[in-house]
Amino acid sequence: MIKIFFSYSHADDKYRDELQKHLMSLQHQGIVESWHDRRILAGQEWANQIDNELRQADIILLLVSSDFIASDYCMGIEMKLALDRHELNEAVVIPVILRSCLWQSLPFGKLQAATREGKPVERYPSLDDAFLEITQNIDTVAKRLASQGNRSTLDHTNSNISSGNNGISDLTGQNNILPRSSNLAIPKVFTDHDKDLYVVEAFDYLASFFEGSLKELNERNLNVVSSLFQRIDARSFEATIYKNGNQISKCGIWLDNNLYGSRGGASSIIYSSSGLGQRNTYNETLSIKNNGNILGLEPMNMSFSSQTKKSLTNQGAAEYYWAMFFEPMQRSY
Fold this sequence. Notes:
Blueprint: E1 2-7, H1 13-28, E2 32-35, H2 46-56, E3 59-64, H3 66-70, H4 72-87, E4 92-97, H5 127-147, H6 151-162, H7 192-220, E5 225-233, E6 236-243, E7 246-256, E8 268-272, E9 284-290, E10 295-299, H8 314-331
Parallel strand pairs: 1-2, 1-3, 3-4
Antiparallel strand pairs: 5-6, 6-7, 7-8, 8-9, 9-10
């Protein structure tokens, strides 16, 4: 079985947990087994244990983000050893770009990333889309390594024989490590504060996305297309597209926490094709979806033809609303 090692910052625990869940499909087939430092037992010397697992791994995943890059341990110890083993053809190092950061000029920047062109996981419409692609690529690498012979299993066996254990672990020694599952993540409990903070950040991203997209649209279509973006306040904005001076499309997007007369709880992000108006009619809503270890946004699919029940990332949610807004413009040609 091919051994996978996760090198990551604890700030990215939620992404590691999601990737771990996707990799379970390979683990159930007996293709891979994985290890990360959350599996270290109480009383074990964590640095030695990490070094041990890193030296035995066949595939080393670098879960790259600004926090990973800022970590002296990730960059100075784990990454360095990983690349040394990669250069010696003892292991395959695969960068998994989680969040946007400047990684291409770093020592692992020459390696093929787990996503096409190193696209960050957070830039996919949903985490499932991102981790499916990553899992498929890991599956390809793991099967190639398996066809060449499972080096790590052989090395581990030889190590036991040379130490006089005859391939049998010392069940009473200090280094006793009992086998156990990597599938130990339990659903995270998100507070109202967590949810409110998440949806506010998602709304701010949508506002920036619409403003930037309209600016680019104008620059590409001078003398034909114009637009108007108005950030009304911290909780709402309005966008309009004009073609040859005539209004083609308009929308209002705002935060609301009183849907259907309910009080309290996390807000939803509301879309209305008639603009902000009195905010008593709308065409779509994005509500918070708890995916177990991470929050996302799920549409109600009230009116848009391209329906989805996926838990969307901020990027996916922005693209979803932009498609609704931009469709009349595309129809006008």
